[in-house]
Amino acid sequence: MTLTVLLFVLLYVGMAVGRLPGTAVDRTGLAVVAAVALWLTGTVSPSVLVESVDFPTLVVLLSLMLLSAQFELAGFYGRVAWRLARIEASGLTLLAVSVAVCGGLAALLTNDVVVFAVTPVLCRGLLERGLDPRPFVIGIACAANVGSAATLIGNPQNVLIGQVGQLDFWDYSLTAAPIAVIGLVIVTAVVAAVWSRPLRMAGAVRRSGGDRPPLVDRAPFGKAVLATALLLLLLATGGSQLTAAMAMGGFLLLSRKLPTRLLLAKVDWPLLCLFTGLFIVTGAFAGTVWPTRALAALGQLGLHPPEPAALAVISLVGSNSVGNVPLVLLLLTILPAPDSQTLHSLGLLSTLAGNLLITGSLANIIAVESARSAGVKVTFREHALCGVPVTLLTMLAAVGWLELL
């Protein structure tokens, strides 16, 4: 038990720091090494180790990654970003459209992938117009997080919550989607207020003979659309998240044009390894007395996790320290048989909390790094000037809505 708790604590401290100090071992490496240590020391038997891993959740994540890869390889994301950067409108209108589009795409195609694919192309297009890309980078990062909260397939933590709780896809969306829509309006309003001066400089579209839109391969794109329709149809007709995702994933792998190897190369394998390691370590931790004690300690602080306000505070602190996914896994370990409403609240609030700081979610980090690769630097302070009010306002709206429900 002592070794289990020690490894658990070290892992979550490492999650907060970002890597093992003095080494190049990142969060994924820490999770895998901790899981291996539990196995090699005999703390966790091979059978318990396998039982700890939620393979259905991993399969759903893998299938959704294949869908995003199909859209990316078809050239869809590049075309969307190119079009956004060339809308002949004011800076404010362009920001509003970018937020709406990225938020909507994130709800179905996962936030991290949308931000990764759209940000660099959009930045280059805006620079050509003479516009400052920084408010747009911040806007689409916040929008991707907010939009992803609308569904159980919008981000990794929601996939986990939906699979573990066996939640109904549409019931969750009925709870979360209204706040996601309100959240996108808040994102636009806050970024527009903070960056009002740069956004007033509309800039002119520069056209040249070499300014060609990225090509969209119609066959792979059509297949991606069909796969999305198949997923939603199966979910709408009562199919489980696992069944719908597996059917879609199998359909995507049957291809005459895109090699299987190319599609699988786009899968975020480190994220799947991170999930696997966290499953094993938190599973071992769940077998100790400490989850019960942790829940009692939260109660003494006046934080009762089933209550939306308490979940909001826990999500705000946890998501911006250890991260959304580790926090959700930990809470699912601690909470005794949470009901669907508690899980709805957890999915919505843990996602919205990630907008507070750059380090609050992977989508924020990806947006900033992708912008940097395009020659645009967004500082920690610049993001926080928008991220803090966006997070507080969206979470306040979410808590009020959840309390009303």
Description of the molecule:
The chain is mainly alpha-helical and 405 residues long. The chain has one domain. The chain is 74% helix and 0% strand. The longest helix is centred in the middle third of the chain and has 26 residues. The chain is globular, with a radius of gyration of 21 Å.
What is the tally of helical segments?
21
* Backbone shape: globular
The chain-level mean pLDDT equals 88
Biggest beta-sheet profile: none
State the share of residues found in helices, binned by percent.
Answer: over 70%
Work out the count of structural domains.
Answer: 1
Note poorly predicted spans: none
Using brief descriptors, characterize the structure shown.
mainly alpha
Put the structure in a nutshell:
With about 400 residues, the protein is an all-alpha fold.
Topology:
Elements: H1 2-17, H2 27-40, H3 46-52, H4 55-73, H5 76-85, H6 91-109, H7 111-129, H8 134-148, H9 156-165, H10 169-194, H11 196-200, H12 218-236, H13 241-253, H14 260-265, H15 269-286, H16 290-300, H17 308-319, H18 324-334, H19 340-352, H20 362-373, H21 380-404
Helix pairs in contact: 1-2, 1-15, 2-15, 3-15, 4-9, 4-12, 4-13, 5-7, 6-7, 6-8, 6-10, 7-8, 7-20, 8-10, 8-20, 8-21, 9-18, 9-19, 10-21, 12-13, 15-18, 17-19, 19-21
